[in-house]
Amino acid sequence: MIHRPRRLRRTPALRALVREHAVRLDSLVQPIFVVERSQDAGPISSMPGIERFTVDGALAHARELARLGLRSVLLFGIPANKDARGSAAADPNGPVVRAIRAIKDELPEMLLIADVCNCEYTDHGHCGIVDERGDVDNDATLTLLVQAALAYAQAGVDVVAPSDMMDGRVEAIRRALDAQGLHHIAIMAYSAKYASAFYGPFREAAGSSPRFGDRRTYQMDPANAREAIREIDLDIAQGADMVIIKPGLAYLDLVRAARDTFDVPIAVYNVSGEYSMLMAAFANGWLERDRTIDETLLAFVRAGADIIITYFAKEYAQRYAAAGRP
Ligand code: PBG
Q: Between 160 and which of 149, 176, 287, 291 could a Cys-Cys bridge form, CB atoms 3.0 to 4.6 Å apart?
């Protein structure tokens, strides 16, 4: 036999020498949930190890992440009061705005990304203004998204990440930011965001399950792949600097397709349900924790993701800090 691929797998150093991909700490983004009222803070039962933090708690958490070598976080807000329009999303004293100010003040080098969407802020749980037919009114919602993006940008966020899936929101946000001289704020668009069952635990965390109907008139149909390319194309044309594919594990084909088709940085969102199913398997002793996490994160890199938004970021960094090289 001339060809023996096993020759290159013989020793750890040889395997390391020919290793094609690695997960970089710099590409991990830890999501953080920030509440307005201290009584809403605390653990999230469907996401063991993940908490809702007050603004002070979020700052302490960010400090810990920075100490572990993580450089980016994605902020979600959970307001005290929800209304039909989700007005609290743009509240200049809301939890996200206050967290941005507090973290930037103490940790100016930490990259702050703010999720821009109304579902955590509306009493009906939809991502925008619901019209008399029970439909989310696309263009009326754009105004709210723009207000929220401006509030976060003015507070000092680095990146805004619209996750609502309204048509035209990237252009509306870009124009509004530019009109205020906020040219330096980048847009990371959730371009290919599917109507997925894997968001279940997040909706418990944010109390954002729709009270009626579902998100299928704005989030994408899991059966569609070509349409993801079209969505990404439109968002880039409207000024998106980076794009997100979400969820992650069940959509790795799209991460690869996006990587091969576009030259902007591609992010993948390893969502709440993907986190929770692995945590449940770890708790049962069914899967080996460290190896499964490494393999999962590596799959995103191999598929072509530059950026990985994951609830495992802190744990991965912790292990990295302790072991040098997980
Ligand atoms: C807000 C938003 C959601 C997630 C990120 N941004 C929830 C949703 O669309 O229902 C999900 C994140 C996760 O599941 O980890 N629209």
A: 149
Query: pLDDT of 88-135, one tens digit each?
Result: 999 999 999 999 999 999 999 999 999 999 999 999 999 999 999 889
Q: What is the CATH number of the domain that holds 181?
A: 3.20.20.70
- Closest residue by CA, ligand 1 atom 2: 163
Number of domains in the chain: 1
Mutate to test the pocket of ligand 1, among 73, 119, 141 (most ligand atoms within 8 A of CB): 119
pTM here is 0.97
The answer to whether 65 and 317 are in contact (CB under 8 A) is yes
Q: For residue 72, what is the enclosing H or E element?
A: strand 72-78
Residue 266 CB less than 6 A away from ligand 1: no
Comparing CA positions, the residue from 275, 255, 274, 273 lying closest to residue 265 is: 255
Domain assignment of residue 3, yes or no: no
Q: Is the CB of 148 under 6 A from ligand 1?
A: no
Full domain range(s) for residue 237: 20-322
Q: Indicate the Cα dihedral angle 284, 48, 112, 37, nearest 10°.
A: 170
Closest Cα to atom 14 of ligand 1: 199
